[in-house]
Design brief:
alpha+beta, Fructose-1,6-Bisphosphatase, Chain A, domain 1, D-Maltodextrin-Binding Protein, domain 2, single chain, 2 domains, globular, 271 residues, binds L-MYO-inositol-1-phosphate, seven-stranded mixed sheet
């Protein structure tokens, strides 16, 4: 279906409204953070995940009833869900769910509007930290309305790298092989538990790079634009049948050396 032209700024306004509504609901109801409908070895699914995704969907549908919607809490992989419209909203209602369920403040609501797979607008809202990261295509990136830029660190040995260790996804390489390689190459490596928030820290220059294997589109869809609009670079280095991704983002100087490092650890020739 052909969409009437909608500007990135218009999409961003709705992304911010939906993020604030959904994120505030989780934060207001944090005393219910342990109410889970599913617990597995390394993950937990909360009723609040579903409630926040519903809230975000209602805000978006009220403004753009014909746009497609892809939320983490629905069934199936990102590839298995049909797209009938050129604009698709990608929502992770609580990114960093395990952190949230324990009362750790490193979690956020991440909402992106994509046009033919390219993010045009993205918002990442961390209520417990009172931080709202936003970006619209070619309009820069902001944190709480203040423009942000990636760091100028240009040596891996001086870099602070954020990563994750999602043991749910059967990637060919265990995440800790990457952790070990980054630990040897960088100044420090940290696991904070929310991919979207990690990427926003790269965009604001508080960290210099982020890499994770076994991440999903809804974890990165908004924050990858925020990094790009803050002068950084991000790329999916590998995809898997179940929707899992390897995603690297950093300031411009560090992208090539860290991409080489990842491909070497994975035994993949660098092109
Ligand atoms: C989380 C990511 C995090 C990753 C976790 C999990 P969720 O997303 O943000 O980076 O390490 O395993 O995938 O599941 O909390 O939305």
């Amino acid at each position: 279906m052909k969409d009437p032209l909608v500007s990135p700024a218009q999409l961003l306004r709705t992304a911010v409204e939906a993020c604030r509504e959904a994120g505030s609901h989780a934060h207001r109801n944090r005393q219910r953070r342990a109410e889970a409908f599913n617990r597995t070895a390394h993950d937990v699914k909360l009723y609040l995940d579903r409630e926040c995704q519903h809230i975000a969907r209602e805000v978006i549908r009220a403004r753009f009833p014909y746009h497609d919607f892809l939320g983490e809490e629905e069934e199936g992989t990102p590839q298995s869900r049909s797209i009938s419209c050129e604009i698709q909203w990608v929502v992770d209602p609580i990114d960093g769910t395990v952190n949230f369920s324990h009362g750790l403040p490193f979690w956020c609501c991440s909402i992106a509007a994509l046009h033919r797979g390219r993010t045009l607008a993205g918002a990442v809202y961390a209520p417990a930290l009172d931080l709202l990261f936003t970006a619209a295509k070619q309009e820069g990136a902001r944190c709480n309305r203040t423009p942000i830029r990636v760091s100028r660190v240009n040596r891996p040995a001086e870099a602070l790298v954020l990563t994750g260790a999602d043991l749910r996804v059967p990637c060919r390489l265990p995440p800790f092989a990457f952790f070990e390689a980054f630990a040897a190459a960088a100044q420090r490596v940290r696991i904070l538990g929310s991919a979207a928030l990690d990427l926003c820290r790269v965009a604001s220059g508080e960290a210099d790079a982020y890499f994770e294997s076994g991440i999903y589109l809804w974890d990165i869809a908004a924050a990858r634009l925020i990094v790009a609009e803050a002068g950084g670079r991000g790329a999916v280095l590998r995809t898997f049948q179940n929707g899992g991704l390897w995603f690297l983002a950093s300031n411009r100087s560090l992208f090539a050396p860290f991409r080489r490092l990842i491909l070497q650890v994975a035994g993949i020739e660098s092109t």
